[in-house]
Amino acid sequence: MTASRLVDINLSGLRIGLSGAVPDQAEWGARALDWEILKFVSTFADAVFRYGGRLVHGCHPSFTPRILGLAEPYKGTRSSPLVTFVMSELWSGEHLGSQLRQERYQGLVELIEVDRVVPPGASGDSASDSLVRNASLTAMRQRLIAEMDVLAVIGGKRWAGTALRPGTLEELELALARKIPTFLLGGFGGMAEELARRTGGESDSHEHFAHGLDPETSRYLLSTANAATASALIINTCQRLQDEGKFMPPLTQATE
After folding, report:
1. Which residue, of 71, 117, 121, 154, has the greatest Cβ tally within 10 A?
2. Between the CA atoms of 58, 251, 77 and 241, what dihedral angle is there, to the nearest 10 degrees?
3. In degrees, to the nearest 5, what angle opens at C-alpha 246 toward C-alphas 245 and 250?
4. InterPro entries given for it (predicted)?
5. How far is CA 12 from CA 64, 107, 155, in A?
6. pTM higher than 0.70
7. Helices (H), 51-189
8. Structural domains in the chain?
């Protein structure tokens, strides 16, 4: 499959979500998954900014610095922020939260902070308690998905052998429940690869993981590690779906 040409693209007003993280190094094998995944993040985020879209992300520390660096050259090119970051209050007072509130990012970044959740049975109110962490991140992810029109999922930590819920899995499930067009990139390792394997044998997997894509393109995204082609296919599909009026108005979607 060859890369689609990015022509006549205008993603103005479209909120494009990115879910994922660089997996733990023990999972990389002989691959440099940090380089492969961040190459996609760079290619994809730059295309979103260049064509007028807004990138939406959940502030994972392996992606956020790269996204900020890509957004800065576009500062002042439009009247609204280029990036929406959604963060749980559990971490909003730490370094990354403080960085996102710096004056240099005013007008460039919209930061949404979601209150922590302390469920019954929790032994405290910090991220060290898995009950608090999971409940607070679920609340954050619900708000995160409400800010999106479309979602791309790549990499992600599996959190195997722990009580922590994988963020890529939960964000994917929330997006599918809201019937948001969702693209699962399984060829870059991590939790997304595991999810792609789970569904790769299903004849209708393209209908679940990439609404609006033809089966061939969907299967390609489930397995490719070609960052440029994957990014181009997603961006072009977003343009087509927007042209066809497939996206709900932001205010309607965010307040459902």
Report:
1. 154
2. 80
3. 90
4. LD_cluster2 (IPR041160)
5. 22, 16, 27
6. yes
7. 64-71, 89-92, 95-100, 130-146, 167-177
8. 15-254 (3.40.50.450)
pLDDT digits (tens, 9 = 90+) for 182-204: 899 999 999 999 998 887 544 44
What letter represents residue 175's amino acid?
A: A
CB 121 within 8 A of CB 147: no
Q: Is 155 exposed, middle or buried (0-12, 13-18, 19+ CB in 10 A)?
A: buried
Using CA atoms of 112, 156, 205, 229 in order, give the dihedral in degrees to the nearest 10: 90
In tens, the pLDDT along 94-135 reads 889 999 999 999 999 999 999 999 999 999 999 999 999 999
What the block records as the tokens of 51 is: 């064509």
Q: Mapping DSSP to helix (H, G, I), strand (E, B) and coil, where does residue 54 land? A: strand
190, 20 in Cβ contact below 8 A?
yes
In this structure, what DSSP letter does residue 84 have? E
- Closest among 84, 176, 2 to 184, alpha carbons compared: 176
CA nearest to 60, candidates 133, 146, 157: 157
Residue bearing tokens 């930061």: 111
Q: For tokens 């260049």, name the residue.
A: 50
Rounded to the nearest 10 degrees, the angle between the axes of helix 33-50 and helix 64-71 is 30
- The residue behind tokens 């709900």 is 248
Dig out the tokens for 225 from the structure: 């590690």
**How many angstroms separate the CA atoms of 174 and 141, rounded?**
8
Block residue for tokens 């789970």: 198
Q: What are phi and psi of 209, to 5 degrees?
A: -110, -5
